[in-house]
Fold this sequence. Notes:
Elements: H1 10-18, H2 29-38, H3 62-77, H4 84-104, H5 117-125, H6 135-148, H7 152-155, H8 158-167
Amino acid sequence: MDWQNEPATWKQLRYLRQHGYTPDRHLTKTAAAELITGMGGQIATETPAPEILVHQLPKLDAYLLRTTVEEAARAVSGATRENIHTTEQDLAIAVSKRQTFWIDTCRDPTRMQAACGQVLELYRIYGCSFEAPSNRQVQEVLSALDSVIPSWDRDHPALFYQTLELNYPELARRR
């Protein structure tokens, strides 16, 4: 059997579950690797395969990440039976990238997964005052803000940190 068509490893499945993706079918190593790279993770392969080695998150800004999630959600709602799994995976990847972006704004720069200019700037201005939140905490803040203020992430990113502190005061670093 070709290693790329073998079942996904337990490490791949663990990573996917930790990042909010629950496989609803058996995944191959290749399919799992593509999902993980799409979420910004690093892939360690048994046999080097250049097309699925380490990939970094694209240099996206907060608002573009939000619009990508919204487009993926629309694609899921309009999906046919034949492509529902693909569109759901695309949505899970988009959500994970957005969560990672905001988590990174609260991580020490040496631990960031997507150290683009906007992430570093938000960390320097706001995020350095917080411990890194969990995916669930970030998603709760994002959902709350998205539901009440259109374009908050483009026009008022400080609202993320204000909402984070109000809902999770334990994440505020004590000086």
